[in-house]
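Revision sheet: structure tokens.
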Amino acid sequence: MIDELTKSFYIAMKDFREYYMKPGALSWGLLFPFVFALAFMIRRGGLTEWLAPGMIALALFFGSTSMSAMSIVFERRFGSFERLMLYPINYTTIALGKTLSSFLMGIVSIVPVFILTTAVLRITPAHPILLTLATILATFESSTFGVLLSFMVKDPTQVMVVFNLVRFPMMFLADVIVPVSLMPHYILPVVLLQPLTYSAEVVRFGYEGSYDILPPEISFTLTFVIGVLFLILAGYIIKRSKP
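Predicted:
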């Protein structure tokens, strides 16, 4: 167990060193969430307390998924990932290593947005410890989702196209910008299929002490369970893709 975790850690560190400064990871992982939050502030004349946790959830979502897309696309395209699969390493361990590097990028990406929202609203998080846990769980779920989606796309050159086709609708259907409670009731099943919904709910509860549609005991549990499920599925897909 410890040996597998060590292998995952080294995979993550290698990815972080090699891909962290790539333009794609920086633009989509760091700049886009910050600019998006700033644009909402200008458009709406300020940043509301309800919208702030949604922007934080969106930042970690884009940061973590962008990192997984960058690292996996490059390695699949140039054959280095196939060489990694030749080593005596568990497939889920590989998925976990990719998840950890994406996790680190997600944590880094929320820093500018969190500073912005805190400076504007000048409020103290309602539950700092729960907000920390929520951030960890939400980033883990987003990271595993990004890794899973990266391996599900057969053509690595099309990964970012698929990512953006998936991510942009989530921005408007995942309780980030518009409260789900204000949407038509028939939209709810679609909302509950979005991983970002659960990330936004846990971050919102930790940040402001309230929730929109899911009580914290449900949203925190589902965020963790979904993340683990994505990780297992990613390991299975890697195994199926072994040359």
